[in-house]
């Protein structure tokens, strides 16, 4: 018996502990002797049986051999298990070891079947009873004594090592028992992390309830052994800059996928030509055309196992010859099964009998191959290559991997690499880590979006992104030098795998750094093309128009050459200035090369200086020699140029392999900008409350979006995230249709179209799709130029939209390179970081993810090569696979989807009563039923009491009842009153229509979830002849026609919005709000609809858009909102407006600064008249240049993707006052019509919340305002803001407008340079006079009061 430490003294506890340990060791020896005697007999019986006989029941075999101490499967006929007892004979309340043997679940049936039929061994043998205190693994110690005696630790380690060398062979192998498996599974779950203290507390809690669980030390040691056997290798990396970090080998991660029964069946190893369709990465042009031949899968297996390799001669069925260079699949025109093809060169026989390769590339079906190259050498060519000496493939035969693979398949797998900065803290304190994840590009899009398939690679708070990429490159290259051995769980054989990078995902700043681009704030901001120029050039007509088009594409080689030129410049005199000019002119700045260049420039400057200790000045040859030595020194430490620019051998052109990412560019980019500008307009016009009511009243059914929270979005409009903008883009046009100018409304209509196009999961015709996408982007950019011209220059994301069509053709639908799944996975990373001691973050987090992947691989049926089993490929015992399939809670912890698929046409919820029947009382208690109890069958209804009886001549044969909802063919759950797309007449060839579900009837004979016999009564809608005049979407009208359809004829749910424009609907319906699940007295305003017969089809809905598009008549398809004939005029007008605004800002800034200087100079010197001071200021060119450079803000300010004060930021980018366009730069000057720019409003007229931007002004501006209003200016910024706010409320004065803030900022900047400016303006006489006065004055504070100290 064990005593708690708190119940006895320390000395008594120690003595009792030693005595118990000694007794326990005696019991161990005695029971070990008994087990040895029993095992000899069991081994003899075991040797007579074969492990590979299919007719042996695995569990029956275990029951026959189980020891007498514990009948694991003991169950009586009543289904009640036998009781468990502890060492004192007392009954245990529950145990982790008593588990019933249920049937295998369907979710892992394939894995279990493979486990029973495979020719590779499972772990088999005896299990050590969970309740047995003689468990060697945890020494039987209670958690109160977490640190056992050191001699027992060594003994247990020796026993455990011997057991590990033989391999755990229990029912829960590779774990010693069920308790250890469940504990390890719980503690290594990605989404449920525990600290060490919490883990120990959980184990203590289980023990106090009577469960027999291992100690924390025992679980940790068991996991380390399993990880050593199964896990991913973690490698130490050291960069050229001296940073140390750790990386999980990419090859090991991908090998887990091909060895796992969940991922392997979905993997595709060859590119596929799908005609005009595109839905996966292997449909993209990069895999089909641009990836080098040597990177793709080099072999293909045909027929009975014959393996053909690329670059080898093969014979064809027509007695011809052929040399394949790459393999690809091609689908038939009718979408039939894909057929394997080879692209390569025909081979013909010359007159001298040698074979000559033709230059043209042709495609040949692989099923026409008849003999491999080794077979040809053996059977036809007597071991001598028949190709001519001039053939370039002669030296490549046989393929190098043929000998290395030894008749094993070799697969090349693409990977998607993601890199981003993420905080490792739970608090708001920023703890920056650069983290790298990857996805298996051989998986389909549906699998890529799941968290289960995201793999961690590396992280570091010290190493820069390109340093991490150096390690990623090395890990990828290692798979080609020495291919990774893996077990193909589908074909039941060992294979070799290689890995190559497909694309690099990330946000725009990160992708710019990976491309060695100088950043979004530079003149040449685009990483994909060479678009850009100086700010002056962008304000010209030609420069502004160039932002609407793609420039010449960049390439890795061009960037590499530019960096080589920068290294050459570093050798020259004046290299610092020349290097800065070179970077500005090219837009290339490499984070790896820049520190080396700076060091070389500094050394060159020091050498070229006149040194009094040097006898002679250094010659150019000496300077070059020293700089050469510095460069060689840097090169010896590692790469001196971005490693991604030197990966052309691995198919990487980094400027083309960093696709425009839709989360940060669309949702957190252009949609966020328009949201900020639109809400600013609404606040200015005092229409935000109306907008909130409309947003609250939007119909959400059929959108498949989170619940819209209008209050939150309007209150925290500056802090919304991606999911909010994704929802807003689908409904915004309906909420602002008459609240904003028409250009703004048209912009939201185009945004809705753009989001729908970019969130396509499948593209039917890539040519038509890209044409529509390009025209939509063109319209959006033109409308943006009409609303806010300057934002095209200041926000590079608008230009990035132009390259979307190029990247979609290259990689497939935009969702494939979206970063939403990786941004979500940051939560898993953050949890791993929080539960570490932060002493070795890169190593500890890498180990943590390796541990999670190990447990995930074991629990889902993955295979691994067991060292303890003599190098055989094994997987976990069927008990583990069965457990995961039966208990969805543990499957969810691993990131697996456990949601049951919806059966189309089935009734998913319980029935509802017909109107005549009594409804359930609202205060009645709900009845909770056990999952295994069947629900009560619904009461049938009379056929004559249904709506369907009037529209269906023949009644159903069975009794029917009213159902609440049903599932459509697209698996949408539709309730009565929902709108659907249906086949009007029934059948697959019936035309599509839109209607409203008015009744759902189900047969009482199969009312649970059967799709048979379900009838749906639909009220049909008619399409109006013309689209909506304002929103440009189809309009449907409710008709008097009804149709009773089978549930299988209902295709999908559709979102219809009420036509409030035609009905002139206004907010007027007050509804009580619900708080804490209680109806309160507070009310919210909703829109009161005046008519329920006219609806607008929401073409901005992402959900079911493909089906909706097929249901719309061709005459109602959307058209362009901008006339292409006015495109050039819009661009010229916008550029002219920008120049006019710029000119007015300069003139106003000069006027403010000159007046301020005159005031200072005239008050400082009474001898200098005002007109003379004014003339001195106006005639000083140097002062004017200083003024222009001082007060004009940069127009290239770039927003932060993570979000900032967007409203204030948009105010800074907008104009102070609308100015008359001045077409000074037009090539053909003509009179342009005056255009009102919707977002180019005067901020000085803003009121309400929009005028609170002054609170975010800098401290010096706020203090200046305090001086003007005679308010104390001491204390913190928050104190100053509170005093100013109280002053404005007390005096009823309006707070400073945006114009006032701009002027105040200019005045403050003027004061900072006051001393230098005054010295510039005062004449020599005034200077001498001031010097004389200063010499006579005593050193006190009077001068400081007269001439305040300023920072120059």
Automatic annotation (TrEMBL):
Residue ranges, compositional bias (Basic and acidic residues): 916-939, 1318-1333, 1340-1352
Chain intervals for the UniProt region annotation (Disordered): 27-56, 906-939, 1209-1228, 1318-1352
Highest taxon above the source species: Eukaryota
Name used for this protein in its record: SAP domain-containing protein
